[in-house]
Amino acid sequence: MKKLLLFGALVLVAAGLVCLGIFTSKGSGDAGKLVWDDPIVRKSLMTFAYKIYGDPAAQNGRYFLSKIVFRNEGTAPVHDFSISYQIPDYVSWTTPETHADIPAGQTVVELYYPQLPAKVTQLSSQTTTTLETRIHWSDQEGKPQEQVLRSNVQLQGVNEIEYTDLPSSELLTWYDMFATAPFATAMVTPNDPVVKEFVAEVTKRTGGTMAGIAGGPQEVTRIMKAMYDYMCETGMRYTSDAGVPTKIGDVQTTVQTVRLPRDVIMSNEGLCIELALLWASCMEHLGLQSTVVFIPGHALTVVRYGDGQNDLIPIECTAITPMAVGAKEPVSFDKAVEMATGELFPQDSSKRPPEIWVNVQQYQKQGFRAPELPGIEIDKIKNILAQRSNHTAEAYAQNAGTGTTGTPATQGQVRKGYFRWSGAGNMVSVDVPEGWTRMENGPIPGMIFTAQDMETSVAVNVFHYPNLTTPTEAMQAARKGVARTGATVRIQSQQQKGNSIVYTGTTSSREGINQWVGVFDPTQNGVIGMFVGARKGYFERNQPIIQDIISSARMGAQGNNGNDNNNGPNQ
User: Fold this and answer.
1) Which residues 6+ apart lie within 8 Å of 556 measured at CB?
2) Rounded CA gap, 433 and 548, in Å?
3) Can you give the pLDDT at residue 8?
4) 48 φ, ψ to 5°?
5) How distant is the alpha carbon of residue 511 from its chain centre?
6) 346 - beta bridge partners?
7) Do domains 34-155 and 393-555 have the same CATH topology?
8) How far apart are CA 339 and CA 353, in angstroms?
9) Share of residues in the chain with pLDDT > 70 (%)
10) Which residues on neighbouring strands pair with residue 359, listed in sequence order?
11) What is the DSSP letter of 526?
12) Segment 129-147, tens digit of pLDDT
């Protein structure tokens, strides 16, 4: 019996050794086999949004630059796996992501969120770069293996927005075509010093106090009206520029050049999306929640004043330029709100357009943060804004025809050294220095008087349109008349004063650019208009005489109080 047991034990030991040998032989003959799918690499990056691409938390990690799926299809582990990335000139080789072992049959997904430097925002146009991906692992014999993958990536210019990143095959609706519209919130910059100075100018009009959202709808409305009126009075204008359809790899998108709010402030003009982002920046700076709303072909801003679903005040940002919304006269703040409300909430709900509401605070909390902004000479910005405030249509309107400078031009009194001209049946009079060159019935239709100082280029031009009834019509007639000479008239701001409208603007011609202030007044005999201006550079330094002339002018029923035309200088 003992011999039988001993024999059985020997058989079991032998069988075990055979199994061990078979296992060892199989293990040494097989190995891990690392394979991967073609990398999914984003074809382009919006450089102003570089912080979004570097944040794995932004919209649950959707905006990775690269995604690679690795699998071990062997029968043994893959050892010493690591992966690292670089973007030459922008990102050096990253610290490798490592896995000591990838067991047989397992899958590993590697995502890359590039930590791009702020210098990418210095790119003014599209630039092609390369994403390099270095993959390292060890074979069954412990020998290191390495492979470097390369993919081209297009860096957009800092002001370029792509409105979708979906492949053409996935573009089924308007919403798909604007899938990346929320990236625009990274252009909302409430802490930009330029925005702060802009808001400071607005607050001056409210007595320097802003109660913010705590003040309720009345206070929020007051804030918004102050900003809207400031934009109108300082000549901010809406400009139009549609996006450009662009194909990047398999992505069919629309790329639009959109400037930051600071650039809109400095140029004093903007697209609808640029104006919407400026509004959002200013409202956020004041502690008010804002939403940028995209609808087909347009964007506007909605400001929230409470927690209720309807505690909203939408604003049609482009109404600062009346022609943009089909108006002939200046559009009031209340009307701009009414327009925006009608666009977003039409009475016939079936006509409500498709829309994307992008709450700025919510998205910025999700990682849609603004880029680092370059330093700027803030004193220069202060000076620019101060000049606009000092020489707006509103400021000129306060002094037009008041006689506040020198002796009032009334009751036939003509100051020494001045000449008073009157015309249009005594419906208009203006005092000009006696030594200026003067001429009646100028070369432009409707011009009935012109006077100019040849040394400083300061000039006065008076128009009369007996067949027109409104200042807006007369202004358009004057613009057309000037255009016949090859020049272009641009209106920067306008301000209603009673029945009159006071404008500021520029006239560009081959001789250069003239700045001017114009006053148009309806009378019982048509519309009277007067421009006072000078060459760019001379306009600012000659403000005393320009203001003096404006204050001396009399139009309409006042005229020159019945005095004869062309009264000579007061001796």
Assistant:
1) 427, 428, 499, 521, 522, 523, 524, 528
2) 10
3) 53
4) -65, -20
5) 32
6) none
7) no
8) 14
9) 86
10) 291
11) E
12) 999 999 999 977 778 999 9
The conformation of residue 23, written as its DSSP 8-state character, comes to H
User: b/e for 243-254, b at 16 or more Cβ within 10 A?
Assistant: beebebeebbbe
502 and 518 Cβ atoms separated by less than 8 Å: yes
Residue range 181-198: mean pLDDT, rounded? 95
Cα angle vertex 39, ends 174, 169, to 5°? 25
Overall residue count recorded for the chain in this entry: 571
Cβ count near 119 (within 10 Å): 12
Class of 34-155 per CATH? mainly beta
Structural contact between residues 252 and 44, judged by C-beta atoms closer than 8 angstroms: no
Give the pLDDT confidence score for residue 307 in this predicted structure. Answer: 80
How far out from the chain centre does Cα 200 lie?
19
Amino acid found at 175: Y
Q: How many helices (H) and strands (E) does the chain have?
A: 14, 28
DSSP label at residue 294: E
The secondary structure of 88-113, three-state, reads CCCECCCCCEEEEEECCCCEEEEEEC
SS (H, E, C) 337-404: HHHHHHHHCCCCHHHCCCCEEEEHHHHHHCCCCCCCCCCCCHHHHHHHHHHHHHCCHHHHHHHCCCCC
Contact 112, 98 (CB under 8 A): no
pTM over 0.90: no
- CB-side neighbour CA atoms (13 Å) of 140: 13
Partners of 464 in beta bridges: 528
The rounded distance, in Å, linking the Cα atoms of 269 and 335 is 21
Mean pLDDT of 20-47: 73
**Mean pLDDT of the region 555-570:** 45
Alpha helices by DSSP H, listed for 400-452, are none
Helix (H, G, I), strand (E, B) or coil at 289: strand
Q: Report CA Rg, the chain.
A: 35
Amino acid 208: pLDDT: 62
Q: Which residues contact 39 (CB under 8 A, 6 or more apart)?
A: 66, 67, 68, 133, 149, 151
Q: How far apart are CA 283 and CA 224, in angstroms?
A: 8
- What is the Cα–Cα distance from 531 to 550, expressed in whole angstroms? 9
Per the model's pLDDT, the better-predicted residue between 127 and 206 turns out to be 127
* Domain segments of the chain as ranges: 34-155, 160-381, 393-555
CB proximity list for 342: less than 8 A, separation 6 or greater: none
The model's pLDDT over 513-546, given as tens digits with 9 standing for 90+, comes to 888 999 999 988 899 999 999 987 788 778 878 8
Per the CATH hierarchy, to which homologous superfamily does domain 393-555 belong?
Answer: Mog1/PsbP, alpha/beta/alpha sandwich (3.40.1000.10)
Q: What is the pLDDT of residues 370-400, one digit of tens each?
A: 999 999 999 989 888 887 776 777 677 766 7
Q: Who contacts 517 (Cβ-Cβ below 8 Å, separation ≥6)?
A: 391, 393, 396, 502, 503, 504, 531, 532, 533, 546, 550
* Enclosing H/E stretch for 34: strand 34-36
Nearest by Cα to 59 from 371, 370, 362, 372: 362
